[in-house]
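=== RUN LOG ===
request id: a7f3
mode: sequence -> structure
chains: 1
length: 161
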Amino acid sequence: MRASQEAIDQEMEVIRKALEKFKDGASIETIKKATGLDLEPRTLLRRLEKLVHQGVVTTSGRTRAMLYRLAKVPAQPTEEKDKAANGAEANIIPLSEEGREILAAVSRPTAVRHPVGYNIDFLHGYRPNVDSYLSPEDKRKLAELGKTAKPVLAYQQISCG
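=== RESULT ===
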């Protein structure tokens, strides 16, 4: 019988909480006892593999000697601390909604980010100073955004006097 996603998520949360008790890591047998979940060993292993893939759990050792432990994730700043610490910086460069989403994504701890790979075909076929990742429209748009509205005042003062 297949478990619902909600049941799987609850099981993974129970596993995560059980791992909090084992700072030096725990074997799959120890985790099974600590959780009290009635899971087949293979099912428990799949739940642990999913937590590893998500970056919540790390492993050490191999095969039957493998130990699972919670990943060391830096504490997330609270929204108030974040605003206080980055308040001045946030006003320097106004960001669009899309820009704020990107900033939030790259500000997440490395351990919880979704890993991505390279487009290997692009890398192998890339010719420096010939090929471009950006379309001509993207290049034009970036060039337009990079233009300043007024000449630099310091340059005028130096050249005029």
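=== NOTES ===
The chain has two domains: 5-70, 79-146.
The helical segments are 5-19, 28-35, 41-53, 79-92, 97-107, 120-125, 136-146, 153-160.
=== END ===
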